[in-house]
Amino acid sequence: QVQLVESGGGLVQAGGSLRLSCAASETIFKFNTMAWYRQAPGKQRELVAGITPGEFTNYAAFAKGRFTISRDNAKNAVYLQMNSLEPEDTAVYYCNGRNFGVDYWGKGTLVTVSS
User: Fold this and answer.
1) Whole-angstrom distance, CA of residue 80 vs CA of residue 74
2) Do the strands 10-13 and 109-114 form a parallel or antiparallel pair, or are they unpaired?
3) What pLDDT was estimated at residue 111?
């Protein structure tokens, strides 16, 4: 099966940290850029960070200096380390990958940051 499965979300206090994981099907993961997106209640889905097979990264402005995206090509996994979390980071976080021009999405994992 072709799938992406996120995990690691939860409830944290402001200033805390979480590490999200995405287990990807080899078909999606191999040779493809992977990314994390998020969608807050009532908001559009937005890019958080992306990482190429060669581990070049890019980040949304709000993520720079706080979040780190990484990948393990041997494990077909992508991660998002989130530090210094703020209530504004509350959202469902989705793993994304593209294969032959088709986007694949996980079901998402909820991150809730309390004040």
Assistant:
1) 17
2) parallel
3) 98
Name the burial class of residue 15, with classes exposed (0-12), middle (13-18) and buried (19+) by CB atoms within 10 angstroms of its CB: exposed
Residues 66-93 as b/e (b if ≥16 CB within 10 A, e otherwise) read: ebbbebeeeebbbbbebeebeeebbbbb
Tokens of 105: 């999405």
pLDDT of res. 1? 67
Cα–Cα distance for residue pair 67/51, rounded to 1 Å: 13
Helix, strand, coil distribution of the chain in percent, nearest 5: 5, 55, 40
CB of 2 closer than 8 Å to CB of 27: yes
The 10s digit of each residue's pLDDT in 5-53 is 999 999 999 999 999 999 999 989 988 999 999 999 999 999 999 999 9
CB 103 within 8 A of CB 52: no
| C-beta separation of 33 from 98 below 8 A | yes
